């Protein structure tokens, strides 16, 4: 649940030239593989072991990120998005499940030319990273 909540998260300032993955259209992204790091080191982990979704929808105009597997997924509000050196960078904070100490801060960086994605999150005594890709295809 921790990464699912984090991956689900902007208000973008349009640039003069719109790239394919600039957030002007909704994106369908597939993060993975996931890596979990603690003070003892890092390990590659399956998505379900850390609550990470296999697919997420990113809709910058609606400031919303949601998981798409298994019907209605978890949704998060995007706190911030910005264009930096040809990348769409989305950031935020997710409290996760009420009553559970699972809050974290996250960042998603998407290459505006090819849709390659890097996700990172910092939680309580752990960090998470996932590499993946996005598409602008209809879903």
Write the layout of secondary structure elements.
Layout: H1 2-7, E1 27-38, E2 41-45, E3 56-59, E4 64-67, E5 75-77, E6 80-84, E7 87-94, E8 104-111, E9 116-123, E10 126-135
Antiparallel strand pairs: 1-2, 1-3, 1-10, 3-4, 4-5, 6-7, 7-8, 8-9, 9-10
Biggest beta sheet attributes: 10 strands, antiparallel
Please tally the helical runs, counting DSSP H or I stretches of 4 or more residues.
1
Topology as a string of helices (H) and strands (E): HEEEEEEEEEE
What fraction of the residues are assigned to beta strands by DSSP? over 45%
Distance between the termini: 23 Å
Structural class: mainly beta
Poorly predicted parts: 4-18
Shape: globular
Percentage of residues assigned to helices: under 10%
Query: Whole-number average pLDDT?
Result: 83
- Number of strand elements: 10
Radius of gyration: 14 Å
Top keywords for this entry?
single chain; 139 residues; mainly beta; ten-stranded antiparallel beta sheet; 1 helix
Describe this structure in words.
The structure is a single chain. With 139 residues, the chain is mainly β. It has one helix and ten strands, in the order αββββββββββ. The chain has one helix spanning 2-7, and strands at 27-38, 41-45, 56-59, 64-67, 75-77, 80-84, 87-94, 104-111, 116-123, 126-135. Strands 1, 2, 3, 4, 5, 6, 7, 8, 9 and 10 form a ten-stranded antiparallel beta sheet that branches. The longest helix is centred in the first third of the chain and has 6 residues, at 2-7. The protein is globular and about 40 Å long. The protein starts with a helix and ends with a strand. The model is unreliable at 4-18 (pLDDT under 50).
């Amino acid at each position: 649940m921790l990464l699912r909540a984090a991956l689900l998260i902007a208000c973008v300032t349009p640039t003069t030239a719109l790239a394919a993955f600039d957030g002007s259209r909704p994106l369908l992204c597939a993060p993975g593989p996931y890596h979990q790091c603690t003070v003892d080191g890092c390990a590659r982990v399956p998505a379900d072991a850390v609550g990470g979704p296999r697919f997420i929808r990113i809709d910058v105009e609606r400031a919303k990120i949601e998981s798409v597997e298994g019907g209605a997924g978890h949704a998060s509000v995007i706190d911030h998005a910005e264009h930096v050196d040809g990348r769409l960078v989305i950031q935020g904070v997710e409290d996760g499940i009420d009553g559970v100490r699972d809050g974290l801060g996250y960042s998603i960086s998407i290459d505006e030319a090819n849709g390659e994605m890097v996700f990172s999150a910092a939680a309580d005594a752990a960090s998470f990273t996932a590499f993946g890709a996005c598409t602008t295809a209809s879903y």
